[in-house]
Specification:
Blueprint: E1 4-15, E2 18-29, E3 33-37, H1 44-50, E4 61-69, E5 72-73, H2 81-87, E6 88-91, H3 102-106, H4 108-112, H5 118-131, H6 135-138, H7 151-163, E7 169-173, H8 181-194, E8 199-203, H9 207-213, E9 216-221, E10 224-230, H10 231-236, H11 241-247
Parallel strand pairs: 3-8, 3-9, 6-7, 7-8
Antiparallel strand pairs: 1-2, 1-4, 4-5, 9-10
Helix pairs in contact: 5-7
The structure holds adenosine-5'-triphosphate and magnesium ion.
C-alpha cells in the first residue's frame, strides 16, 4: 500500500480579506513527484508554503484546515517549526545560497543541530553534493564562496543544503525557472533519482517538465484545486474542461 506522507483537508488561507486558498483537499504519497500547475496567482506557492508553515512568517496570512505529516498535526502548538522545516525542506525559484563557502552552505543545517565531527560533516558534504549532481563541478573548490558559482550550480548547492539534513519531503517552487535548459535538465534528472528516497512536491509553469518528471499533477485555478490525478491522465485525458484548456494553452 502506498503510504500517505502528507494529508491536507479543507484548507483555507486568507491574506487579510483575500481568500487565496478556497478549501483544498490534497494528499501526497511517499516517493512520488507531484507537480502543482496553474496560472499566476492561483495559489500554488501559497499552498506549498502551508506544508512547512512558511506562511507563519507572513503576518496577514491566516490558515485553517487539517495538515498531517506522517499522521502528525503540522499546525499543533507544540510543533517545532525548525524541526518541521528540516523534515519538509524547501527550494526556491531564485537560488539563495548564503554568502559563505560551498562547504559551509551544505553543512548549515547540520551545524545548527550541533553536529561538530569533521568526518561526519565531510561525509555529508560529499554525499549531498553528489546526490544534487554538482559534486564534480565543485569538489576542488569547496572552500570558495557559493556566490562564485553559476546560477544552475548555486541551485544544485541549495538542493544539497536541503538534502544534507535528510528531509522526508522536498518542496520546490519553480526550481528551474531561473535556469538555462542544460541546468534544468540536470536538475530534472536528479529529481528522478531523488524520488527513490524522498517525496517531492514541485510548482512549475513548464508543462513539459511536469509531464516528463512528475507522477501526479494538480491543477489549481483561482484558489481551488480543479483536478488532481496521475500526470498521464491530466495530460492525455483530463476530466475537467478547465484543465484541458490550461494544458493545451487555450486558457485566458
Ligand atoms: N504575502 C502575500 N500577501 C498578500 N497576498 C499574497 C501574498 N502572497 C500571495 N498573495 C496573493 O495570493 C494569491 C495567490 O498567490 P500565490 O503566490 O500563491 O500564487 P502562485 O500560483 O504561486 O502564482 P505564480 O505562478 O505567479 O507564482 C494571489 O492573489 C496573490 O496576490
Ligand atoms: Mg508562485
Amino acid at each position: 500500500m502506498a503510504n500517505k506522507i502528507i494529508e491536507s483537508a479543507d484548507v483555507h488561507l486568507f491574506y487579510g480579506k483575500n481568500e487565496a486558498l478556497k478549501g483544498i483537499n490534497m494528499d501526497f504519497v511517499e516517493n512520488e513527484i507531484t507537480a502543482l500547475i496553474g496560472p499566476s496567482g492561483c495559489g500554488k506557492s501559497t499552498y506549498l508554503r502551508c506544508l512547512n508553515r512558511m506562511n507563519d512568517l507572513i503576518d496577514s496570512a491566516k490558515v485553517t484546515g487539517k495538515f498531517l505529516l506522517n499522521g502528525q498535526d503540522i499546525y499543533a502548538p507544540e510543533m517545532d517549526t525548525v524541526k518541521l522545516r528540516k523534515e519538509v525542506g524547501m527550494v526556491f525559484q531564485q537560488p539563495n545560497p548564503f554568502p559563505f563557502s560551498i562547504y559551509d552552505n551544505v553543512i548549515y543545517g547540520l551545524r545548527l543541530s550541533g553536529v561538530k565531527d569533521h568526518r561526519v560533516l565531510d561525509e555529508a558534504v560529499e554525499s549531498s553534493l553528489k546526490q544534487a549532481a554538482v559534486w564534480d563541478d565543485v569538489k576542488d573548490k569547496l572552500h570558495e564562496s557559493a556566490l562564485s558559482l553559476s546560477g544552475g550550480q548555486q541551485q544544485r548547492v541549495c538542493i544539497a543544503r536541503v538534502l544534507a539534513v535528510k528531509p522526508k519531503v522536498i518542496l520546490m517552487d519553480e526550481p528551474t525557472s531561473a535556469l538555462d535548459p542544460i541546468s534544468s535538465a540536470k536538475i530534472e534528472n536528479m529529481l528522478l533519482e531523488l524520488r527513490q528516497q524522498y517525496t517531492i512536491i514541485m510548482v512549475t509553469h513548464n508543462m513539459h517538465q511536469a509531464s516528463r518528471i512528475s507522477d501526479k499533477t494538480a491543477f489549481f485555478l483561482q484558489g481551488e484545486l480543479i483536478e488532481y490525478a496521475s500526470t498521464k491522465k491530466i495530460f492525455l485525458n483530463p476530466t475537467e474542461k478547465e484543465t484541458e484548456d490550461y494544458i493545451s494553452g487555450r486558457f485566458g
